[in-house]
Amino acid sequence: MQLDIPYQLNNFIGGQFSPPNNNQYLDNINPATGEVYGQIPNSNESDVEFAVEIARKAFLSWSTSPPEYRFKVLNKIAELIEAHLDILALAETNDNGKPLWLSKEVDIPRASSNFRFFATGAMQFASESHAMESGVNFTLRQPIGVVGCISPWNLPLYLFTWKIAPALAAGNCVIAKPSEVTPVSAYLLAKICKEAGLPDGVLNILHGDGPSCGEAIVKHPLIKAISFTGSTRAGEKIASIAAPMFKKLSLELGGKNPNIIFADCDWNKMLYNTIRSSFGNQGQICLCGSRILIESSIYDQFKTDFIAWAKRLTVGDPLNELSKQGAIVSKTHFEKIMGCIEKAKLEGGTILLGGHAVKQTGRCENGYFIAPTIIENLGPHCTTNKEEIFGPVVTLQPFNSMEEALELANATQYGLSATIWTQDISKATKLAAGIESGIVWINCWLERDLRTPFGGIKNSGVGREGGWEAMRFFTEAKNICIQY
Ligand code: NAD
Known about the structure:
Blueprint lengths: L10 E3 L2 E3 L6 E6 L4 E7 L3 H18 L4 H17 L1 H12 L3 H25 L4 E3 L3 E9 L2 E5 L5 H14 L3 E5 L6 H13 L6 E3 L4 H10 L3 E7 L2 H11 L5 E5 L5 E4 L5 H13 L11 E5 L3 H13 L19 H16 L3 E4 L19 E4 L6 H4 L6 E7 L2 H8 L4 E2 L1 E5 L3 H10 L4 E4 L14 E2 L2 E2 L4 H7 L1 E9 L1
Parallel strand pairs: 7-8, 7-10, 8-9, 10-11, 12-13, 12-18, 13-16, 15-16, 18-19
Antiparallel strand pairs: 1-2, 3-4, 5-6, 6-22, 11-21, 14-15, 17-20
């Protein structure tokens, strides 16, 4: 199979690549170079309408196919993703600006794991039964029908497949939309699915922006469930449309995660992981710990060591294997982050490191690069410590007691994840129970087991992904009661 990438991408509907009905295209820009290097459809309601019609037909046989068959096809997709790791990783890096080594080590292998994991899910998913004196109930878990999956740009194929794989494993047909900022790996996935033998119409991939294509998916009356990952702002809009239509909704939204460091932590392990959780993927991971809370007795030592390490993170061409930090995903996002840094200064923050763009020469001279930025002297209630920045920017705040750490940790509208560093496991567990978030890591960060529930509370979302949570989301439970 040739995985070539044409200049103009097209939608994948009913197993065919086709242009959007309105013939409107958006530019695709490489953020490391600032160059337009392709175009993608800006699809609208009529494309969604057509895709839903096709998907509904495909649902009849896919939803009733034996689990072994779904396992085989999804597993083959996983294999083909692995086999084409290099081209997929390069596509991801050219679209997103992340270092190529990161796309190769994390993004693409994880996309393959998502399919492999949910392939086995199709085989092992089971439902409950409840015995009564007079009879028995059993729960039939049936696929929903046609579902919508909408994903963001930060971990493009990784998060796209995290939704699509369980939806397909559970027997649904899918209308999926990748971010318009990072469309290419989704285009390549369509080719891979075709090659793997996924029946036509089971997965349909439409390209376009949020207001045009995304909203058309959310509004379509025959799309009965929406799985969305992205900003809290867009999540709010989606909920406002989908809730009155009584659709099933899974919303994975923004975060402002605390990283809580106690004096008794394993220093080297904490420091290594705090660098990762602060600046990994240029700080554009929803799970990044953007508010670092440090026990006062080690505040100065932490500051010195953390700054020294962050200074060594080379910002540069994502294709250069020595670059630890690549480009910010787009000009718009670059400007947003730079605006947040200016705001932090106005709020009285002290920039300890970075706070500026990093000009490159040669191929990347017009790219969007920002230095790792560390800010202190800001309290918990300023905008910088309350609003998601989603870039290589962290703040430092000291605390004097576990109670104060908890108060600072919870002083935000978000509740996605938190990290705790201490050797005292009772203290860590007690704190973890009090933290308002869906995920807490103790003495680690981004340690993932795909079986665990994944998601946030407060303004970080509704519902959980991962493992059986995802399989349950993508099925409807029907209780069947039999009297003896
Ligand atoms: P975004 O909300 O701008 O876009 C996400 C996706 O939604 C894109 O495909 C976009 O086209 C689409 N979209 C936008 N508006 C829409 C609308 N009104 N209707 C339907 N679709 C719409 O988010 P982004 O900038 O691509 O991604 C960054 C955000 O995603 C950050 O806030 C980050 O925290 C969040 N995120 C959350 C998680 C999580 O698991 N909680 C994971 C990754 C990213």
